[in-house]
Amino acid sequence: MNRKMLVLDIDGTLTNSKKEITKATKAAITGVLKAGHVVVIASGRPTPGTKRVCEELELSKYNGYVLSYNGARITRLSDNAVVHQKVLDKKYIPEIFDYCIKNGLGMMTYEDSDAITGTPIDEYMELEARINSIGLRSIENFTEYVTFPVNKCLLTKEDALAKAACEFLAEKYRDELSIYRSEPFFVEIMPKGVDKAASLEVLRNILGIEKENIICCGDGFNDLSMIKYAAVGVCMANGCKECREAADYIAPSNDEDGLCTVIEKFF
Fold first, then answer.
1. What value does the mean pLDDT take over residues 155-175?
2. What is the CATH number of the domain that holds 235?
């Protein structure tokens, strides 16, 4: 069999507007798994935030994988082994925290099954915690507290100010960090070279799958790298303009079981 890899973003791609995986989409993905292909969840979410969808699709049973934190960590679900990860150099955390304090942005990272922040909790942090079904805690002396390995920091602010912050920080740290928006109000701070495409290149080499057999499906800013990388880059009809322009194929929206169409066409 010519084994393929189906790579799926969660929000806006795998799940519909109600954050649900429909019966039709689940059945189609189960068919891919039973045929012996590899299904990979690739998300900006922290690893605990992917747990529900992975369990719903029974990916541990079928040797599936998760690229969490936009690919900073790769987890094999059959035994929850971390097969690859990159972490932020801790020297950047006080610098970026100071920028956030001076410019009124929120800043958070992740510890175990919680999101933690040293800035005032805002609606975007609450949304992140709710989507991922994780706790949200305020930490005093945030920069001193964060001594553990960090895969990602997340900055929060409304669209225009988040865009300006992203542009400024991406230029300042252009040779040191990967910085981009995953949503209009989220700015991702990642180790240099981390994006979904880079992690898929690592994973495909581990699994021995040819790049020509990779189909990536997404909708948001942080899916752009893997849509460009894949042999078949798929953007959902509800996706952002940049992803639609880069895609090889535009699927029906996440509210129209678009992944069923993708699977029928390419598997």
1. 96
2. 3.40.50.1000
